[in-house]
Amino acid sequence: MDDFDRRLIALLRLDGRMPVAVLADKLQVSRGTIQKRLDRLISSGAIRGFTVRTRQEADETVLRAMMGVKTSGKRPTVFIEALSGIPEVAALYTTNGVWDYIAELRAKNLVDLDRALRAIRTIDGVTETETSILLNVA
């Protein structure tokens, strides 16, 4: 993957439905060049697919937060199962570093977010948490 491929992918991350003609114009190459690069990136597996942002993801009225969670590590399945009962947990990631997990949270309001945070903190095996509310896309 070269610099051109990275710039092409960056544009597609902004809008996965951007027409080939627009991509070509922005990158100052022919439509054929864009199509060949896209075909190669897809066939090589560098691009595995295209996605859609749902209204909820783009909705500015939804609170979004990321919560780092440390656990005692003794019973991870209990922790993961307990999270499945908390509707504000949109995704859970295992990670390295300080946190064992990162939970992506979405809530309608601060009351719902607070309830979810308290529920997560009281799960057996959770030893420490830190939450950051996402304010704006940079």
Task: Give a brief outline of the structure.
The chain is α+β, with helices and mostly antiparallel strands. It contains six helices and four strands; from the N terminus they run H-H-H-H-E-H-E-E-H-E. The longest helix has 14 residues, at 31-44.
SSE layout and pairing:
Elements: H1 3-14, H2 20-27, H3 31-44, H4 55-58, E1 63-71, H5 76-83, E2 89-94, E3 101-107, H6 110-121, E4 126-134
Antiparallel strand pairs: 1-3, 1-4, 2-3
Helix pairs in contact: 2-3
What does this structure look like?
The chain is α+β, with helices and mostly antiparallel strands and 138 residues long. Helix content is 42%, strand content 22%. The protein has 6 helices and 4 strands; from the N terminus they run H-H-H-H-E-H-E-E-H-E. The protein has a 4-stranded antiparallel β-sheet with strand order 2-3-1-4. Strand 2 and strand 3 form a beta hairpin. Helix 2 (20-27) crosses helix 3 (31-44). It is elongated and about 55 Å long. The mean pLDDT is 88.
